[in-house]
Write a structure and sequence with these properties.
Elements lengths: L10 E3 L13 E3 L11 H11 L3 E3 L5 E5 L2 E9 L26 H11 L5 E5 L4 H7 L5 H12 L4 H4 L8 H11 L5 H9 L3 H11 L6 H19 L2 H4 L4 H26 L2
Antiparallel strand pairs: 1-2, 3-4, 4-5, 5-6
């Protein structure tokens, strides 16, 4: 979950010059830097448009998500929680792999832009603490989260239902279990929450079994994040939320990420 910070007036109605592209969504961002959190007003405005009638605001601080009539309180969450500001500091598990690596400022800047972009934030069930469970499994790796969600639907529920906060009562976990059981598979869950296609969910699941201990491993993970963001950017619901200029900015950042990772991999292979 990201930092708080409201930004009133940071969204605009679509202009008349783009009328031919207007949808019922009806708002766009001023710039890609308007997204600075997964839980502020801008983020929730995006969630409410993205999830439509399945997400509603109960009061100032509580949002309710429903699937097949099963309701659960939700919060915002960052999918690929990559903090490029600490690559050279060694203060976080995966980022510390690049502690003595010459990572370009271009790569760090583009990763920073994508971190809280619409492509990388989504709702997450709050009741039952699924966000805490995600953080505890694989140290907040999104692909490992996908792996364990798939394990849940294959009958191995323990890592989801019995992980996370030690101070949470069983009642909330049972509410979470009831909500998760409203889906038939990890494919269905990730399609509904993240808008992902079956082949990409399977790619996440396969990747989630891998360890990340070397620079090559982390480069692969960054490329997986790139592919996820690229897939999300192609979704109509997200494109309807952004104007053409902002979409192009995000595409440029994605191109930069892929190019800079390739350069980084080449330098690592020469060592």
């Amino acid at each position: 979950m990201g930092k708080q910070g409201y930004s009133k007036g940071s969204v605009l109605m679509k202009s008349n010059e783009n009328e031919e592209n207007q949808t019922s969504v009806g708002i766009v961002l001023i710039s890609d830097y308007d997204f600075t959190s997964d839980v502020d007003e801008v983020a929730w405005d995006f969630y409410l448009k993205y999830y439509g009638e399945n997400l509603c605001q109960k009061n100032q601080n509580n949002f309710l998500f429903s699937h097949k009539g099963i309701e659960i309180y939700a919060n915002g969450d960052v999918s690929f929680n990559i903090d490029s500001t600490v690559f050279n500091k060694g203060t976080k598990l995966y980022e510390s792999i690049f502690k003595e690596t010459n990572v370009s400022e271009e790569l760090k800047d583009s990763l920073s832009v994508m971190r809280y972009s619409p492509m990388n934030i989504s709702i997450m069930p709050k009741t039952g603490g699924l966000n805490i469970i995600k953080k505890s499994l694989g140290n907040d790796r999104f692909d490992t989260f996908a792996y364990f969600i798939n394990q849940y639907y294959e009958g191995f529920k323990t890592p989801i239902i019995n992980a996370g906060s030690l101070k949470m009562g069983i009642e909330n976990r049972l509410i979470l279990e009831k909500f998760l059981d409203s889906y038939n598979s990890a494919i269905e869950f990730f399609e509904d929450i993240y808008g992902l296609e079956k082949h990409f969910v399977n790619k996440l699941i396969r990747s989630g079994k891998r360890t990340i201990i070397k620079k090559e491993d982390y480069c692969y993970y960054l490329k997986l994040a790139h592919d996820y963001w690229n897939s999300r950017l192609s979704q109509k619901k997200i494109q309807d939320f952004l104007d053409k200029r902002t979409i192009e900015k995000y595409k440029n950042h994605l191109n930069t990420i892929l190019n800079e990772i390739e350069i980084l991999e080449n330098s690592i292979n020469k060592q």
